[in-house]
Amino acid sequence: MKPINIGICGLGTVGSGTVALLQKNREEIQKRSGHPIAITHIGARRDNPDCDVSGIRVSRDIFEVVRDPNVDILVELLGGIDTAKDVVLEAISLGKHVVTANKALIAIHGQELFDAAEAKGVRVVYEGSVAGGIPIIKVSREGLAANRILWLAGIINGTGNYILTEMRQGGRTFADVLAEAQALGYAEADPAFDVEGTDAAHKLTILALIAFGIPLQFDKIYTEGISHITQADVSFAEELGYRIKHLAIARRSEEGIELRVHPTLVPKKRLLANVNGVLNAVLVEGDAVGPTLYYGPGAGSLATASAVVADIMDLVRADNRHSGVPHLGYADSGYGLDIMPIEAVSTSNYLRITALDKVGVMAQVALVMSRHKINIEAIIQKEPADGEECVPLILLTHQIREAEINNAIAELEAMPEVVGSITRIRMEQLDG
Fold first, then answer.
1. Can you tell me the distance from the alpha carbon of 305 to that of 16, in angstroms, rounded to the nearest whole number?
2. Which of 129, 233, 316, 331 is the most buried (most CB within 10 A)?
3. Burial bucket for residue 215 (CB in 10 Å: 0-12, 13-18, 19+)
């Protein structure tokens, strides 16, 4: 059997994990793929002391790996966008298949890369770009291919999920848990990419195009982070039978496609509400199969390497360069529905209002909601703390269009009895 030579660009967390996994399970991988697979060339700007590269050529210029005529499959694990894009496009131009775990690259430039690959008769595969070791892309493109995907909802950023879990279980503040997450290496020094939802939005872009056959449209995703979530919100949600999760949601309707990332109240009894710590999960509703849940580690060296190596094996198994599943899972992409602006989306809502402790305030709040035809499902009014003049009012609403609840919130915030901004968290039942 002809050996398949692999070139790897990047020797960070995922790159070193990929090297380790290919070495550790060499015999099993060969048996399953039908060919011996050898790493022959690595491009890395610096050595990784935790990675054994004995007997493997290492270049500081990553493009030497791309241009190596002995490399059959190029694995891009650099991170970032610009250099990674150049690496992938040059590999394609040289007739090499590409494996990547770069969600930002696929979300922003995926269509260009796929078009180039199609023209050259090679493939770009990207299972590791979403949810780490969970094979959600393969499931969506292949396992659920006979289904019309109705909606999906996922916890696809482990950092945010860890923070919300610790806030609930430990009664801690966002700032306190964030500092701990940074110390543990779960969050970067600048955590905005994770906690403000950008990372999840990149991944949702990819999941949506596979689920619905729509073009990549990262710039149309509504994105809201979790930095404004307080311990009070977590406690009130628990009291009402919900948990707060940072969800990525895609849903098709007759009006268009919803694409949104935001904190969400989820009933405690739902499986998704019980995904804790740094773990990920994606719930997918197909018209034939119904709801299916995929759960596991969404990041990490060997977890993501598991997806990367599986992609390599799929390429090796292919009988010819044109075999396999279409890049997006659709032979002809373009579902035909537009992405809905968030103002057109309808959800139930949790509202936390800080109001002066005066007679009649609740009646005024109810009147505002009535004027906007917003039905209230539940109300909690707490007693003021000792020495405080304000009380928290908690409202749960029935489903209402976003534009209408926004108007109601603006009117409520203009009331002299309402102090500061109102906290709004959307709600999802996730019951199919």
1. 9
2. 129
3. middle
- CA 105, CA 374: separation in Å to the nearest integer? 41
Q: Can you tell me the distance from the alpha carbon of 350 to that of 394, in angstroms, rounded to the nearest whole number?
A: 7
Fold entry, domain 344-427: Alpha-Beta Plaits (3.30.70)
Residue numbers in the chain where pLDDT is lower than 70:
1, 319-336, 432
Distance between alpha carbon 316 and the CA centroid of its chain, in Å?
28
Question: What pLDDT was estimated at residue 304?
Answer: 94
Write the Ramachandran bin of 4: left for phi over 0, alpha for psi from -120 to 50, otherwise beta.
beta
Architecture of domain 136-297: 2-Layer Sandwich (3.30)
Residue 203 designated active-site = yes
The pairing of beta strand 73-76 with beta strand 222-223: unpaired
Closest CA to 424 of 164, 276, 230, 200: 230
From-to residues of CATH 3.30.70.260 in the chain: 344-427
Q: Considering only the top CATH level, what class is 4-125?
A: alpha beta
Q: Per-residue pLDDT tens for 40-81?
A: 999 999 999 989 999 999 999 999 999 999 999 999 999 899
Q: Which part of the chain is CATH 3.30.360.10?
A: 136-297
- What's the Cα-to-Cα distance from 382 to each of 2, 171, 356, 412, rounded to whole Å? 72, 19, 12, 18
DSSP secondary structure string, 418-432?
B-SPPEEEEE-----
72 near 41, Cβ under 8 Å?
A: no
